Amino acid sequence: MLVFAGALVAPVIAAAQEDAGRVLAAAGDVVIVRGDQRIPAQAGTPVRAGSWPVRAEGDGRLESVTLHPGPRRVGCDHLACGFGLVPNTELGSLFDCRVDSSGVAIDRWQQTSQPGIYAAGEVTGIAGVDAALVEGQIAGYAATDQRAKAESLFAARDRSLGFRRAMEWAFALRPELATLADADTVVCRCEGVTLGQLQDGRSWRSAKLQTRCGMGPCQGRVCGPAVAHLLGWPPSTVRPPLFPTAAANLAGLAEGRGTGG
Predict the structure, then answer these.
(1) 129-143 helix and 154-170 helix, angle to the nearest 10 degrees
(2) C-alpha dihedral over 69, 70, 74, 80, to 10 degrees?
(3) Within the chain, what is the greatest distance between any pair of CA atoms?
(4) Would strands 12-14 and 47-49 be described as parallel, antiparallel, or unpaired?
(5) Cβ contacts of residue 176 below 8 Å, gap of 6+?
(6) pLDDT in tens, 137-194
(7) With helix as H, strand as E and coil as C, how does the chain read?
(8) What angle do CA 178, 184, 190 make, to 5 degrees?
(9) Which candidate, 143, 135, 145, places its Cα nearest to that of 115?
(10) 224 Cβ contact partners less than 8 Å away, ≥ 6 residues apart
(11) How many CB atoms lie within 10 A of CB 226?
């Protein structure tokens, strides 16, 4: 989208496997949906796999980024940086659905481990909008006991699952990234907590109590996966409400009535 806005984009640096582009191309097309247009995501921008930023530097503003391997220094004004693909499984966890390494676990009918609860889209594993649409159709048909219509879409879903598996393989976090952060690296941006402040902790719960890591506006949705990768601490128990809500809604629940808003 930066290219479409007129920005000059330097090569996209990806920590993905070196032949990720070939595998993803074989598994399916990566596109950006812009209005009614479907445009190849790379849009002519060169992509360099097997590389990642190790340092961002500048005097009052970003001026350059140092990349691995090398080290290689690249001048730039802005750095957009992300690591891995993480499905949001909070709602499934709240309903006590089984969650595996890809997301909320489902059967062939998109039903979770809890009878009568179906899941579709990103929550079951990241595979793009086309996969989410066909999974949602299967779940809807199965939930309304239209099994024949659901089964007629299995082949389309299988094609999308090939792309999902390729995505999971290509963008799995590399072991080297666990040593990328130093003691001054901010892990929890909401509360400004650094890795050094967390290293004496013993668990995600103790880190929250001692440093407020994960207690800011994002409620650990950003720093939780980072802490799990860096320190091996699994996330704490999910509790409602999952997202901010008005006090009037909570008061209404306590009084046994629903409240809009």
Answers:
(1) 140
(2) 20
(3) 63
(4) parallel
(5) 68
(6) 999 999 999 999 999 999 999 888 877 877 777 777 888 888 888 999 999 999 999 9
(7) CCCCCCCCCCCEEECCCCCHHHHHHHHCCCEEEECCEEEECCCCCCEEECCEEEEEECCCCCCEEEEECCCEEEECCCCCCCCCCCCCCHHHHHCCCCECCCCECCCCCCECCCCCCECCHHHHCCCCHHHHHHHHHHHHHHHCCCHHHHHCCHHHHHHHHHHHHHHHHHCCCCHHHHHCCCCCCEEECCCCEEHHHHCCCCCHHHHHHHHCCCCCCCCCCCHHHHHHHHHCCCCCCCCCCCCCCCHHHHHHHHCCCCCCC
(8) 90
(9) 143
(10) 204, 214, 235
(11) 21
Length of the chain: 261
- Taking only the tens place, the pLDDT of each residue in 126-135 is 888 889 999 9
Domain ranges of the chain: 12-75, 90-170, 181-255
Q: Phi, psi at residue 13, to the nearest 5°?
A: -100, 120
**Contact by Cβ (8 Å): 102, 161:** no
Residue 5 in tokens: 């806005």
Do β-strands 31-34 and 52-57 pair in parallel, antiparallel, or remain unpaired?
unpaired
Give the integer Cα–Cα distance in Å for 165 and 127. Answer: 8
Q: What's the token pair of residue 121?
A: 């889209």
**Burial (CB count <10 Å: 0-12, 13-18, 19+), residue 225:** middle
* Sign (positive or negative) of CA dihedral 127, 132, 137, 138: positive
CA 116/CA 144 separation, integer angstroms: 10
Amino acid at residue number 198: L
